[in-house]
Amino acid sequence: MTANVAVETTPEAPLWNDPAQPVAARVDALIGAMTLQEKIAQLYGVWVGASDNGGEVAPHQHDMEEAVDLDALLPDGLGQLTRPFGTAPVDPALGALSLMRTQARIASANRFGIPAVAHEECLAGFAAWGATAYPVPLSWGATFDPELVRRMAAAIGADMRSVGVHQGLAPVLDVVRDARWGRVEETIGEDPYLVGTIGTAYVQGLESAGIVATLKHFVGYSASRAGRNLAPAPMGARERADVLLPPFEMAVREGGARSVMHAYNDIDGVPAAADETLLTGLLRDTWGFEGTVVADYFGIAFLKTLHGVAGDWAGAAGTALTAGVDIELPTVKTFGAPLAEAVAEGRVPEAVIDRALRRVLGQKAMLGLLDPDWSPVPPALDGADLDDPDALRGTVDLDRPGNRELAREIAERAVVLLTNDGTLPLTRPRRIALVGPNADEPTAVLGCYSFPLHVGVHHPGTPVGIDLPTLRDTLAAEFPDAEITVARGTGVDDGDTAGIADAVAAARDADVVVAVLGDRAGLFGRGTSGEGCDAESLALPGAQQHLLDALLDSGRPVVTVLLSGRPYALGRAVTESAAIVQSFFPGVAGTGAIAGVLSGRTAPSGRLPVSVPSGPGAQPTTYLGARLAQLSEVSNIDPTPAFGFGHGLTYTTFAWSDLAVDAEEAATDGEFGLALTVRNTGDRAGTEVVQLYLHDPVASVVQPVQRLVGYTRVPLEPGEARRIRVAVPADVASFTGRDGHRIVEPGRLELRLAASSTDTRLTATVTLTGPERRVDHTRRFHAAFTEEPAPQG
């Protein structure tokens, strides 16, 4: 096969193939030429797996779907190809060849030469065999560094685009409301501003590479009752508007996301996939979103099987389409024959199909898939001999050194030092007891949507495809002169205590104990963290707390290291560990990042994106609680966290001083100006994260005690100081008022400059004056930080 496969055109090529024409005109012309069956075919995907010998993809069989006959479907066309790389292990070059050949087949089989949009998961890197596994989103949040996340997303997008993928199913913009939920690792954190800024940066990076970013899950999925996956989400309209929706608003407006995925949950009896006020009224009519809404996998069928708001498949299809869902994923179920029958019976107007089709084809036009010179050959195969699959094997590298360097940088910035009595950094220890279930486990750094744990576990005879050094490996390299004794102690969740005695013996013979605990990522019960792996409590899984307590009793300093997908209550370790290091599934470079922090080669600068609880049962709770959510004399449950949102230590100290307020009053449409000096008062370089929280003492509706409205990272050399200026628009004080509209109220506010939600350093008391003002999604989202050198001395 040659590299110049393209749609055949003539001098009288139809208008839809003319890229010089407006997209809307091209799409209208194409819709006008289509039959009903051809229209519907563009509104669903087919789940496939690429061929490891470069042949065409094969339909993937899932227990929730019927077999698909591609030969029967393709003459009408096809909207999407679901996860050709993310279904089975396949060499990237041969996967690209397989996808290329399939796209050529799809285009040649339908009258209009339209290929499919190929989509993949990219939650912690491109979910393909051999691709770099980056830190999970909870680690992105821990960096408090949007620009770094933007660079990572651009690299992920470039890899996807190089092999022929068009759309990525990320980022997850769900705000954590209950840390027992298994998918906490997929989120960015418990604060909507942090989630919005980091998530928007990811969208910008992915879109800059030409990949359609997909915001998920819209909306409420993370607010499920008791933290159970796919459970009802009991919440009021204000919680939805002020906590769960802002990250999506930001990513649509500032990120330019071109797709949104509906959530599985219902809110007050209305499933997201059937909510026209959400998917059309809010998303499109109010926010102006012009992209596509895709179904979460099987979510349209769930309207019949799980929600009971549709009596048959046609009813489910019509309900979802009317609500605003454009594309059924992962495969054809309700949008095929049932939808055609519903139109024929008059149950679904064809105009509703045309509305969705206009969005789908508009996106294909913008991706170049309707152009006359479109070619299925992806950039990675450009110029290659496409007739020799064996020669292609191994020629596409999705885990390049540049990727791993970027993964290292993120992993290092995401390590959070929770406590330290001075034991860290370790200074040339002679004997290290390396203890715990994650001490010598290669996959302990991976989240559930990494390819090895998401797909590779089903192919045990296939190599992992990427290098995953264990903490044992990286500590041996970090401390080459140390004697390292490894003892597992117990499993992640097997409850086995038989090995604890040996672990304690190893500890007593060591100078320092490094206890490596946490999670095993998996799906639907195969792990302790991940989709469908919800926790009954936030106690460490299995017998790990017993192991940790026994090590604390050993008489040796214990450095507790957590490789996990959620925060856990650590009991005595909070006060008795020599140090606690938290890393949220940090990816391929994660153990090296941890080893560097333990040795002091790198200075920790991560901050908690979620609170660490004091006890295992005080859930659900986040730092965003109102006054009634705090410790009180009328309840015996103390929700105060062991470590608050935004907390993190480093190996130096900082002094905050010289707070200046430009004016103590500003109009409800104005802004405040603040300035402070941050100085490194220690003897080594470090990074402080200046966080700005807003406290509204009196409001017309109950408010959180405080909420994050801005942040910035400030790297400083020993003795160096910087003057930080902050412009705080009144808009960041807005909230949803009693009438359901977002307002800025006049009144007194506290602007708290803090090292964390529990460590306020400087407070400015200011007042908003003038009339109450209504704002909307076009409001100013950010407090703007700028830096300038401060006088030394």
Mean pLDDT: 96
Largest sheet: 8 strands, mixed
Widest sheet, order of strands: 2-1-3-4-5-6-7-10
Low-confidence stretches: 1-9
Number of strands: 28
CA-based shape: globular
N-to-C CA distance: 70 Å
Structural class, judged by helices and strands? alpha/beta
What is the tally of helical segments?
22
Question: Strand fraction band?
Answer: 15-25%
The level of helicity is 25-40%
Rg value: 27 Å
Domain Fibronectin type III-like: 688-757
GO molecular function, one term: hydrolase activity
Pfam families: Fn3-like (PF14310), Glyco_hydro_3 (PF00933), Glyco_hydro_3_C (PF01915)
Protein name: Glycoside hydrolase family 3 N-terminal domain-containing protein
Describe the structure.
With 793 residues, this protein is α/β, with parallel strands linked by helices. It has 22 helices and 28 strands. The strands form six sheets. An eight-stranded mixed β-sheet has the order 2-1-3-4-5-6-7-10. The protein has a six-stranded mixed β-sheet with strand order 11-16-15-14-12-13, with helices on both faces. Strand 3 (80-82), helix 4 (92-109) and strand 4 form a beta-alpha-beta unit. The chain is globular. The chain starts with 22 loop residues before the first helix and ends with a strand. Pfam families: Fn3-like, Glyco_hydro_3, Glyco_hydro_3_C. Belongs to the glycosyl hydrolase 3 family. This is Glycoside hydrolase family 3 N-terminal domain-containing protein.
